[in-house]
Amino acid sequence: MTEIHLSDKQKAFIEEQVNSGAYKSAEDVIADSLSRLGSENEELRAMIAEADAQLARDEFVTYANADAHADAIIERGMRLLDRKS
Predict the structure, then answer these.
(1) H or E stretch including 15?
(2) Superkingdom, according to UniProt (predicted)?
(3) Which of 61, 56, 58 is nearest to 73 (CA)?
(4) For the chain, what is the mean pLDDT?
(5) How would residue 84 be classed by pLDDT, with cut points 50, 70 and 90?
(6) Which of 14, 48, 41, 11 is nearest to 29 (CA)?
């Protein structure tokens, strides 16, 4: 079996999860954590693949500087808020 070394902080977190009733055992905490990590990695890979595909299709926007990008984000947010009200 693989030996795993955890920091005191990590051990305390696991113990807190079990003591709170969120998990039945330390093994359940670790299993759920690994499952979530795997899911997150899959999601990131899919997002990167989609971004690569968009780039290949020339579906991207360039900005002159960071301020212009921030302004575009704010403008998009304001439009989304207007649609909801």
Answers:
(1) helix 8-19
(2) Bacteria
(3) 61
(4) 95
(5) confident
(6) 14
Q: How far is CA 19 from CA 6, 38, 50, in A?
A: 18, 25, 41
Q: What is the pLDDT of residues 31-68, one digit of tens each?
A: 999 999 999 999 999 999 999 999 999 998 899 999 99
| Residue 14 neighbours by CB distance under 10 Å | 19
**Tokens 């079990």 correspond to what residue?**
18
Sign, CA dihedral 43-47-49-53, equals positive
Element (DSSP H or E) covering residue 25: none
What span, in angstroms and rounded, lies between the C-alpha atoms of 46 and 40? 10
